[in-house]
């Protein structure tokens, strides 16, 4: 094999664990090139480092054959994998999902094989989701509209196996909604996992289009409130084992991780310590994992059929927090040796999302929390895992959904609940080798979140010093929330409006709220950076808390030279993530900036820093 520093080379017939090459497959002959920023190159050179590229595969097309192409981008010295793809083609052409060209010495490991049509395998779509009180927003939606929209969304995803957490009495409505109007050959079966008379205790459920051969009942090692499953049969009669899980949520690490990353990002000591944070897994979750992996799964699974586990693990991915991703956005250089999810990896289970999207910086895959905010550290706590002892499983694609369907956006539910639950949904397309046509519908894909660097580079130009800025606001909490705190240069102080439910509406007007910055004189601006409230704070009991209330989501940036006449400079829409949001101004001339917040989380407005650049 030839090696060149800073270039990506091709190596054919390299095994991509955990999948072996089927003995019956006939090898093809494919050539590979790369599409980088729209330009096709033979191999990316140093000038392409840091760019988004895809891999193009070109090979023979033969009647009656399906070609399978498996590839991975590997870093030779450290063994890091930055991209994986498994592609199928009947015309000899295929293209991978995007990856970031890394620095140093890398190679493309690739293998292709050919199958007779009808012998490639069966595509199976998985979906896992915590529904938040049966899709009723934990009792906050009395109209039933959210559950109705939720069912419409699941129907659009159209999973073959749907792993449900927090069914809580909605299982009959979900089954009826999923099966309404479906052909008799496309109906869902309903598989109760948590068996209880009262709806509020019916937690775990499975919905599946596959034939149910056996339901796995409760074991003494772990309650069916937390784990259970079924043996399912594929169309060709092959069995697979599917389990739904809800790990204990006590001792959540979301707030401690947010706290630790914020402090580290701004040069303060790591607090809480990494050892303290990892210890949260060891309270109850690790014992649950041991019971599941050492007792329950071996009791039910006696063969080498694929094993699937989907659900809410309430734990973070150890693969996401290795040294490979220490400098990714929201990691602040930290590595965290999570123990709970590593148990499953050590037992031979693969995380479908991270397997096919191995770059945790480019594809963070946040699933918590779509409702109360994602914080600064990417929290991925919902997973679809698989174990494959006979090289039968191919991961084709995986994605997370955290936003309502376009037709459900803009309504009264959407403003406070941008998704149908407080958890994101995880969807994955697998292919089980054997009889079958191969992929027969579009593959789900995650959109890359291309955000290089642990903290975004600032806008072009020079920041205007805080000493030259002043600020006023239409509403503010005296002292602690004074508008001047948004321009004091300290990211740990913040402006905050009065809460909308305060007794006196004259000091607590509903949104829109405005905050106005006076830059002292007229300037030519290149952009402005807004940093939302970091909220690295402790509760009265000394525990880390995250409060993203007030984080702006939607509004308008206006400019003025005299403070009387205003012009709109930009409409702004920002994610529910604790991080800087920049607005380019491209030479706008102004003395005053005014941000009008039309929609902020919780109906309030809060900003840590406003920094204009000239």
UniProtKB/TrEMBL annotation:
InterPro entries: Endo/exonu/phosph_ase_sf (IPR036691), Endo/exonuclease/phosphatase (IPR005135), FA58C (IPR000421), Galactose-bd-like_sf (IPR008979). PROSITE patterns: FA58C_3 (PS50022). SUPFAM superfamilies: DNase I-like, Galactose-binding domain-like. It comes from the Bacteria. GO terms for molecular function: catalytic activity. PANTHER family: PROTEIN CBG08683 (PTHR41349:SF1), PTHR41349. This is Uncharacterized protein. It comes from Nonomuraea phyllanthi.
């Amino acid at each position: 094999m030839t090696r060149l520093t800073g270039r990506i080379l091709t190596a054919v017939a390299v095994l991509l664990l955990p999948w072996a090459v089927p003995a019956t497959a006939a090898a093809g002959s494919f050539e590979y090139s790369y599409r980088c920023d729209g330009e096709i190159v033979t191999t990316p050179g140093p000038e392409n480092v840091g760019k988004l590229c895809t891999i193009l595969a070109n090979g023979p097309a033969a009647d009656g054959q399906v070609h399978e192409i498996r590839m991975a981008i590997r870093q030779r010295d450290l063994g890091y994998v930055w991209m994986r793809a498994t592609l199928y083609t009947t015309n000899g052409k295929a293209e991978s999902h995007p990856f970031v060209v890394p620095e140093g010495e890398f190679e493309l490991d690739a293998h292709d094989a050919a199958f007779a049509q009808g012998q490639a395998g069966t595509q199976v779509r998985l979906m896992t989701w915590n529904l938040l009180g049966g899709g009723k927003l934990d009792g906050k939606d009395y109209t039933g509209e959210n559950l109705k929209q939720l069912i419409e969304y699941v129907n659009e995803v159209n999973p073959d196996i749907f792993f449900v957490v927090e069914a809580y009495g909605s299982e009959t409505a979900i089954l009826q909604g999923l099966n309404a109007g479906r052909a008799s050959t496309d109906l869902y079966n309903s598989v109760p996992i948590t068996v209880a008379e009262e709806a509020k205790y019916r937690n775990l459920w499975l919905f599946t289009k596959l034939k149910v051969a056996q339901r796995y009942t409760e074991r003494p090692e772990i309650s069916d409130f937390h784990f259970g499953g079924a043996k399912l049969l594929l169309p060709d009669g092959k069995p697979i084992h599917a389990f739904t899980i809800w790990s204990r949520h006590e001792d959540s690490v979301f707030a401690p991780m947010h706290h630790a990353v914020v402090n580290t990002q701004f040069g303060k000591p790591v607090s809480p310590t990494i050892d303290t944070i990892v210890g949260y897994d060891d309270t109850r979750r690790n014992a649950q994992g041991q019971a599941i992996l050492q007792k329950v799964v071996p009791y039910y699974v006696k063969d080498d059929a694929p094993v699937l586990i989907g659900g809410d693990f309430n734990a973070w991915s150890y693969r996401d927090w290795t040294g490979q991703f220490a400098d990714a956005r929201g990691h602040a250089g930290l590595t965290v040796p999570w123990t709970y999810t590593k148990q499953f990896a050590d037992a031979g289970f693969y995380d479908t999302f991270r397997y096919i999207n191995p770059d945790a910086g480019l594809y963070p895959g946040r699933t918590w929390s779509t409702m109360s905010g994602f914080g600064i550290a990417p929290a991925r706590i919902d997973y679809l895992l698989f174990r494959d002892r006979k090289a039968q499983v191919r991961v084709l694609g995986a994605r997370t959904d955290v936003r309502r369907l376009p037709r459900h956006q803009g309504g009264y539910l959407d403003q406070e609940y941008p998704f149908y639950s407080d958890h994101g949904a995880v969807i994955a397309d697998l292919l089980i080798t054997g009889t079958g046509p191969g992929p027969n519908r579009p593959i789900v894909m995650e959109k890359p979140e291309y955000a290089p660097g642990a903290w975004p580079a600032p806008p072009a130009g020079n920041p205007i010093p805080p000493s030259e800025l002043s600020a006023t606001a239409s509403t503010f909490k005296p002292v602690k929330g004074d508008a001047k705190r948004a321009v004091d240069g300290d990211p740990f102080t913040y402006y905050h409006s009065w809460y909308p439910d305060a007794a006196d509406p004259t000091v607590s007007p509903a949104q829109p709220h405005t905050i106005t910055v006076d830059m002292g004189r007229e300037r030519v601006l290149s952009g402005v950076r807004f940093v939302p409230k970091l909220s690295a704070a402790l509760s009265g009991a000394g525990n880390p808390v995250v409060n993203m209330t007030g984080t702006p989501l939607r509004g308008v940036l206006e400019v003025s030279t005299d403070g009387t006449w205003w012009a709109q400079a930009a409409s702004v829409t920002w994610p529910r993530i604790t991080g800087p949001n920049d607005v380019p101004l491209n030479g706008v001339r102004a003395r005053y900036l005014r941000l009008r917040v039309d929609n902020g989380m919780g109906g309030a407005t809060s900003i840590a820093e406003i920094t204009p650049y000239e």
